[in-house]
Amino acid sequence: MSRKAETDATKGILTAPYVLEYSYTRSTGPVLGRFFSGLRDKKIEGIRVADGRVLVPPVETDPVTGDELDEFVQVGEIGTVTACSWLAEPRAEHPLDKPFAWALVQLDGADTGLLHAVDCGSAENLEVGSRVEVSWRDERHGFITDIECFRLLGD
Amino acid sequence: MAEDPITGIVCPIRLDYTITPGRAQTRFLRGLESGKLLGQRCPATGKVYMPPRGSSPTHGLPTTEEVEVADRGTVTTFCVVNLQFASTVREIPYVCAQILLDGADIPFFFVVQEVDVNEIRMGMRVEAVWKDPSEWGPTLENILFFKPTGEADASRESYKEHV
Amino acid sequence: MRDVAVVSFAQAPNLRSDRERNEVEIVMPVVREALDSVGLEQSDIGFTVSGSCDYLTGVPFSFVMALDAVGAWPPIEESHVEMDGAWALYEAWVRLQHGDIDAALIYSFGKTSLTDLDKVMSCQLDPYTLMPLWPGAISLAGLQASAMLAAGTVSEADMAAVASHSREAAQGTPEIPEAEGPADVDDLLSRPRVAHPLREHDIAPATDGAAAIVLVAGDRAAEVCDKPAWISGIDHRVDTHAPGNRDLTTCPSARMAGERADVGRSHIEVAEVYAPFSHQELLLASELGLGDGVDVNPSGGALAGHTFMVAGLARIGEAARRIHDGTATRVLGHATAGPCLQQNLVCVMEAAR
Q1: Exposure of A133 by Cβ count < 10 A (0-12 exposed, 13-18 middle, 19+ buried)?
Q2: Of C301, C347, C349, C353, whose CA–CA distance to C89 is shortest?
Q3: Interface membership of B30 toward C (CB under 8 Å)
Q4: Which of A119, A128, C193, C233 satisfies CB 3.0 to 4.6 Å to C150 for a cystine?
């Protein structure tokens, strides 16, 4: 950590860089553990809730009834964009190092949107209703970034 | 062979800040550039805060009056550190102490060196050991550590309010 | 229920970067003004509660240091929420219901200029499937706007009209000294998109600031304030944390909070809603039933200057101010938290007890 004080050239105000950096090791629990294990095997699984909907990513308890859930449902790698916004200047921590779209993707067989990046070249190429498919990372570790991004279907 | 199921993940976080000290602490840090320790006085009680943060915490009032305090004072309490923490750069054991600088009304925290860890005690008189003035900047790092002055110990009466 | 009123409100200017002052130096004059304007001292206050976010300073428990601004000696009864000060106000309102104290001080502060607010706000997301991707608040709001535009519940011209009004309203106010210049809808729509579909005017500039409110219960409120803003209804509700599990074109938690605060019982004259993105003001107006004849965000709102952790408390304060100055008799303050209006608090205030 560097704390060397510097003088702000514009106003004579003292400033210092300060970095907060740490890693959390989190238990996944059985449901997200299975979801992440699935991603490692190029498989996306959601979970069915009492009213019949399939949630992706899966959750441990039914958001309406509070009951524990255990009916996993494999969904498709292709889906429909339900919302999208453009990121012109990605930062180092983002999934792609070039401009991309964020999107909620309702995978075929799912009833909710999975948030991820879409590599589509420009904002104009993507809209609500666009069909996209998963692009898997070659090296997968059981993490949300095992999905590198989505791409326009047919690209 | 199937891999083990995922039971845990590691999520890194990194946030970058540009921190600023505020007006009162700027005055304090500027004082350090010329080797001065500038406390600030509470307008209600007259007590001198060191290091100052710009307000009297007991009254919620701005502390506008600067008061130079001495670079020597009295150990009000201490701790002998025998554990190596991840961020520690000093050799163990070493001594951390609360030091009531002459002219201040609140002790502040610093490392005491050139003292046998068995000799450190409440009431011991200590003084700052500064870096060479050519290396001074707007930082408490100008002070390397405190060391015993060799004076007679201060009476408990003189610091008992600050223990 | 015990009658409780907002009797005073003070706010620091919302500045893009209040670099000279630390948090305590920003909070101290605001707390002092809020107390002085009703002739109260810290010793008159039975409960002090603050709202702030340690991630903004990068210092755990930084809120404890902010207590240096209020004179917390002898030790006072105090609390803190890691949320907008509006939720601190809710806690104070509940505390006053106990009946053993009559006055509460609420303050909140946010110094967003020390780091990247958009990035910090990623840290409030689900740490398994969302946070590791670091989608910022602006991108998530962009998703919501795209869904609303696709559904036809708003248009880009509607959004630009909100921004145009916000800029106009904030001009020349001491609270937003760096307001963006006035611009009409056509002008704004001709400008480039910065986070498609959002343009710069759809996104609130992050600011530094602080606000404080004093709540007083019962007859004491009328003794310290000529025109107390009596809280007639207050409620807060929450939608799921996962944006992908919501219909982002609606906001059930805002609707329900509004219903439970009894917004619709009679006409609201002034509503200050916390909408850091232009489309969110339109969604909130719809969910809270704010129809024609309601003056929405006459202060310019959070869209003109967004001090994270403060903007919600300031909305309640700005609305109450209209009762204090006699220009309104029934007003609404709203606060939000979480991505895409996930959590919502509604506070209805009236001139009549």
Answers
A1: middle
A2: C347
A3: no
A4: A128
Q: Is the Cβ of B7 closer than 8 Å to some Cβ of chain C?
A: no
Question: Residue C346 falls within a domain, yes or no?
Answer: no
Q: Does B86 touch chain A (CB under 8 A)?
A: no
Amino acid identity of residue B68, one-letter, is E
Report whether the peptide linkage leading into residue A57 is cis, meaning its omega lies within 30 degrees of zero: yes
DSSP C266: S
CA dist A100 and A131 (Å) reads 16
Of C128, C193, C245, the CB nearest to A28: C128
Q: Number of Cβ pairs closer than 8 Å across A and B?
A: 75
Which distant-in-sequence residues (6+ apart) come within 8 Å of C103 by Cβ? C40, C44, C45, C46, C47, C214, C215, C216, C217, C220
pLDDT at B1 over 70: no
DSSP letter for A61, please.
B
Task: From C213, C215, C214, C210, select the one nearest C27 (Cα to Cα).
Answer: C210
Name the band, by pLDDT with cuts 50, 70 and 90, for residue A91: very high
Three-class SS of A5-54: CEECCCCCCEEEEEEEEEEEEEECHHHHHHHHHHHHCCCEEEEECCCCCE
What does DSSP say about strands C270-272 and C295-296: parallel, antiparallel, or unpaired? parallel
Q: Is residue C341 part of a domain?
A: no
CA dist C340 and C296 (Å) reads: 19
Joined tokens for residue B99: 């030091």
d(CA B131, CA A133) in angstroms, rounded, equals 62
CB C166 within 8 A of CB C300: yes
In contact, C17 and B20? CB cutoff 8 Å: no
Tell the burial category of C254 from Cβ atoms under 10 Å away from its Cβ (0-12, 13-18, 19+): buried
For residue A116, pLDDT beyond 90 = yes
Largest CA distance in chain C: 58
Predicted pLDDT of residue A1: 31
| Smallest Cα distance from A153 to chain C, Å | 20
pLDDT band at A3 (very low <50, low <70, confident <90, very high): very low
With a cut of 50, which residues of chain C have pLDDT below it? Answer: none
What CATH code is carried by the domain that includes residue C18? 3.40.47.10
Strand partners, C208: C15, C111
Residues paired with A56 in a beta bridge? none
- How many structural domains are present in chain C? 1
Query: Which range marks the domain in which residue C42 is found?
Result: 4-116+206-229
List CB contacts (< 8 A) between B15 and chain C: 55, 58, 115-116, 119-120, 123
C79 domain residue, yes or no:
yes
Complex ipTM, two decimals?
0.94
Beta strands in C174-264 (DSSP E): 193-195, 198-199, 208-217, 229-238
Structure tokens at C282: 């339109």
Mean pLDDT of chain B: 93
For chain B, report the end-to-end CA distance as a whole number of angstroms: 64
